Amino acid sequence: MVHNTRWGILATGGIAKAFVKDLLKNPQTRNASDITHTVTAVASSSSSSRAQEFITDLSLPGMPKAYGSYEELVNDPNVDVIYIATPHSHHYQNARLALEAGKHVLCEKAFTVNAAQAKILVDIARKKNLFLMEAVWTRFFPLSVQVRDIIRKGGEIGEVVRVLADLSIANADGFDVSSRMVNLDLAGGALLDLGIYSLTWVFQTLYHTLPPSQRKPPSTIQSSMTKYPATGADEDTTILLTFPTTTPADDRRASHGIATTAFAVHSHPRGTPSIRIQGTKGEIQIFGPAFRPVKYRVVPVDEKKEIREWECEFPDGGHGMYWEADEVARCLRDGKLESERMPWEESIVIMEVMDEVRRQNGLVYPEKIESVEYPVAL
Amino acid sequence: MVHNTRWGILATGGIAKAFVKDLLKNPQTRNASDITHTVTAVASSSSSSRAQEFITDLSLPGMPKAYGSYEELVNDPNVDVIYIATPHSHHYQNARLALEAGKHVLCEKAFTVNAAQAKILVDIARKKNLFLMEAVWTRFFPLSVQVRDIIRKGGEIGEVVRVLADLSIANADGFDVSSRMVNLDLAGGALLDLGIYSLTWVFQTLYHTLPPSQRKPPSTIQSSMTKYPATGADEDTTILLTFPTTTPADDRRASHGIATTAFAVHSHPRGTPSIRIQGTKGEIQIFGPAFRPVKYRVVPVDEKKEIREWECEFPDGGHGMYWEADEVARCLRDGKLESERMPWEESIVIMEVMDEVRRQNGLVYPEKIESVEYPVAL
User: Which CATH number fits domain B142-311: 3.40.50.150, 2.60.40.10, 3.30.360.10, 3.90.1170.20?
Assistant: First the structure.
């Protein structure tokens, strides 16, 4: 039986557009014949006409409702799950609004502004028996799944000792002070916007590849930040994490994860790998931006062994967000509250790392967006 | 006029052999027509026959003296400069022996075991008007000179914001406990033996490229270490340095240097760059091991600009150590006490970084090799 998921889209910006475009792709083209997706409602906080414009622009089928408030959206009985596509400053308030209304939630990354907010959302989801997931779409790419499998099996690159993961965007001219990328009122800066992907690669390789019972948070978190002169947001953040074991689990050794992110340089100019997963027998190199990897290459140290490449296909010309949408649909179908591939606990550990990195470097967002109070008008 | 330098070789191991082989190459093949080198004496601490064997094996011309003690070597009036090729545990004692005897010194890296020892050697050299230099041969490669020039000029890769430099050797099986690589009595471990090259690349790109008056030690030093189970030496060390400016000097921004070193993984498998010097307009990638780079590649971010490659030639089949020997010869000829390309102050700052990294990770060598006392029999 094919299970259909009815989506409500909260916010109408660029990321919402990209997500919905992927939702519209035929799941069969990616061999997903067990699930389908429908957009049943879209909301803009500014006006229903803006939501209607979004529906019209994307030619959404089935006459979805257009709302001018998020409250109306989360109370629509024809919506199963709310996709939250606001800036991360707003995630806690928006996700909580949806959960309190009894709706399942897929919430864009970074999950929240701090770990305290993340924990409250998780508690509410657990109590109310609702699905909740941070929308780290990259984790659901077939490429990511394969890379994690290679690491878990251990044979091809051996024991993983070090991971270098970068997302940097070569915008040396900087951003306008009003840009959400550098606006502290929107929790702007490299860390939450780009660094989450560097951390995703460190965590999905050095942490998530261990059996859940053996996953341990970093034993040390060290970091350094350069601030964007005009606003004080971080523009260049480097994080050194030490994990107490290597993968496959070996607690004689620690492993190092180096997560970097910067506005001013480029993580992968002209085909340079943006991520290197270094094991005792070889390494996996990831090509393309950390958020949308397009190829991996397994490079054995032993020169007699062949270098192996695998390119990621994006069926039906998709951006790659449908794989996470499919995961959400299957979790809902199966009555799961969380995805094993992006579990609550791991989202919280990553938020705790970001909290600590900000603490070490004196990066504080305005009180109302750091607050766990609800509701707070932002 | 051609200036000849008369070398005394202190110790007869692999690195001494490599150095002397390069000394024997005809300087004209590398367009050095202003200087020549002669080996006038060789000493082994164990026996003169071992020194003689070294002379015979390498067919050293001019009948150099063979000594069975370092004391005899440093007192030979036909020697201008002593090349110290012992393990780094012994550098302080050996270099001091030579300086006290009034000889100029070229001392293998790591310079000493700690910064306190380095400072004393520098003080003695200054007082006695003697030349002294840490033998970081890589700095004198035409490739290194070119790379520093590109950074200084700033045009090709813009403002340098981040440098990733690694030397790791893919010896996952580990070393025998008696190996000097892991023997704490010889200050063994990744940091002093391999990490010095990672730090060399960070320093020669982010620090040395500034005018001397603007060079500032790292504003933060953060690090993490994995210990070799059998001996407690470090087998995997990662260092995150923050410098207060970028290069060319811009103190609105900081820069990050990430120096890594490990036994278990490979820094540059199958042609992967081992060093990335990341600027706002592009990056310089260094190929080959960090100690003996063979190629650099300038990768502009702008896809319309060509990628530029330059390969290092090693005239007369040399290993690449003659360029530092030529620098020593020219400094001696010109009456200089230190080389501008590897100044005392920079060797000391790097030793201070290594001291701090060891302090952060509880890595202590035996008291007699950490000692600044002299003489101490090791």
Answer: 3.30.360.10
